[in-house]
Amino acid sequence: MHENKYCFVSKAHDPRFLTLRSLQTPQGRFRTGLYLIEGIRHVARAVENQAPLQSLFLDPSRLSNPYGRRLARRLRKSGVPGIHLSPHLYRQLTLAEEPQGIGAVVSQNWVSLTDVCPSQTSFSLAVESIDSPGNLGTIIRTAEATGVNGVFMIGQNADPWEPATVRASMGSLFSQKLIRCSAHEFAEWARSFGVLIVGSSPTGLLDYKALHWRWPSALMIGSEKQGLSETLIEASDFMVRLPMMGRGDSINAAVAAGVLLYDMFNQRRGA
Amino acid sequence: MHENKYCFVSKAHDPRFLTLRSLQTPQGRFRTGLYLIEGIRHVARAVENQAPLQSLFLDPSRLSNPYGRRLARRLRKSGVPGIHLSPHLYRQLTLAEEPQGIGAVVSQNWVSLTDVCPSQTSFSLAVESIDSPGNLGTIIRTAEATGVNGVFMIGQNADPWEPATVRASMGSLFSQKLIRCSAHEFAEWARSFGVLIVGSSPTGLLDYKALHWRWPSALMIGSEKQGLSETLIEASDFMVRLPMMGRGDSINAAVAAGVLLYDMFNQRRGA
Q1: Is residue B58 domain-shared with residue B17, that is, in the same domain?
Q2: How many domains does chain A have?
Q3: By CA distance, what is B269's nearest residue in A?
Q4: Strand pairing partners for B150?
Q5: B82 plus B169 within the same structural domain
Q6: Contact at 8 Å (CB) between A142 and A254?
Q7: Helix, strand, or coil here: A218?
Q8: Same domain flag for B150 and B258
Q9: In-domain check, residue A2
Q10: Dist. CA B204–CA B194, nearest whole Å
Q11: A87 in helix, strand or coil?
Q12: pLDDT score at A201
């Protein structure tokens, strides 16, 4: 029972706590290649998907759920290093309204563009400069549900490891291939493999229901404010729009992505 | 030019500011029947939809957009009372990252259940105990885009006037009939008018693509955590599910609502 015992950390200037805190900033994540997850569901899904867990942080006073306690014990026994935090310090490491007392540091898992070779049935998603971390995480969650094979993160600040993104993705991050590249590199990649490129825009020429998907293909979703860049619009085979009633001129980007992903998924499953 | 001049308020204990601040709380909104909106787009859409504007609050130092300035001037000249706030006080009245310098107090506009009589083609939405204000606002935004004729807010704490909901709805609140009632009252209403009742759940028996909508009908969306109540599940004609791949067991509630609303909309427009 006493192998690999976890230290207790309660001081805000303890370097072990400061290292964890730094992962809440873009700089900290970029410098280390690590990110934070929190909650039983997230840690369990990371383990299930063999995500590279570096260490655990626990607040035993909050970890009352029996499954969560067993999970923490199993990870400790399997050799994952970790620390215990005071409730006050633990609270600062999560956006959750009700923190669950178990969190982990995970290595970012980027796949290189040159390692991505689409199969004849594969379907990819490209997201460019999504402004809202919550929208980005929600889109990645829907991507998993609809059988997407890889998510291209396009743009300078693409950071799927932002705490609000990780949270909204509900564990889908661990099962997705994530590729970071420029708009130009993505367009080149798609062209070289004969991938059908479909972009979404409120001013797209084609009603999305008139599109016949073929595979391999890729759906591109742009920034909430600016939409897709000229480079990606020029690279597209089709620009589709969601028709709209009422006086609004757009719908939420994560909802639009969801409607389009389900349309693709329905055509693929013949529904 | 000097008719109806607006006072300048810069003290945090000024009662005019405190009244505005109180509308950020559920109690303040409930007590007064009012709520806050902020931003040029929101105020413009409120005017367009003849929403009952009670007063304006402005921060002239932020209101640089010419269209926004004209809008403020026009409202002042038409007799809408208002105040100017210091940047510091104005900042406290909005969730926006970049406040736009124009906001308003609006009367909540509930429609009574007894005044709602569905036509042969009408389509309603019922939302029950949605936990996330952002999700609720996003759902109302998609409802407008897909031609929904009325939104039933079911549950004790139904509050579409919460600042994050108002913000996410992007002005769609003003154009929707909003009805507050209990699950039982909603079920009675739907039954008495022969409305087809469709509920959504990850464990629904019917794949949503197998559903043939007929009108009048109503889609019911439940809480992210608990789903729909027993009362509404029993009242439903069909419980539909969105099929899912991967290891996730659900998708975001606003995305699920969006996929189902667009499916209904597509059947109605014959796409």
Answers
A1: yes
A2: 2
A3: A243
A4: B124
A5: no
A6: yes
A7: strand
A8: yes
A9: no
A10: 22
A11: helix
A12: 95
Q: Which of residues 219-248 of A touch B (CB under 8 A)?
A: 242-248
Q: Does A254 touch chain B (CB under 8 A)?
A: yes
Cα-based distances in Å from B94 to A55, A216, B88: 39, 45, 11
Residue A195: pLDDT band with limits 50, 70, 90: very high
Per the structure, the complete domain to which residue B102 belongs is given by 7-108
**Structural contact between residues A210 and A243, judged by C-beta atoms closer than 8 angstroms:** no
Residues A117 and A103 in one domain: no
Query: Among A138, A171, A247, whose Cβ lies nearest the Cβ of B255?
Result: A138
Q: Which residues of B221-235 are buried (b: 16+ CB within 10 A; e: fewer)?
A: bbbbeebbbeebbeb
Model pTM greater than 0.90?
yes
Is the predicted pLDDT of residue B1 greater than 60, yes or no? no
Mean pLDDT over residues A46-66, rounded?
A: 95
Residue B230 backbone phi and psi in degrees, to 5: -55, -40
Q: Say if residue A3's pLDDT is above 70.
A: no
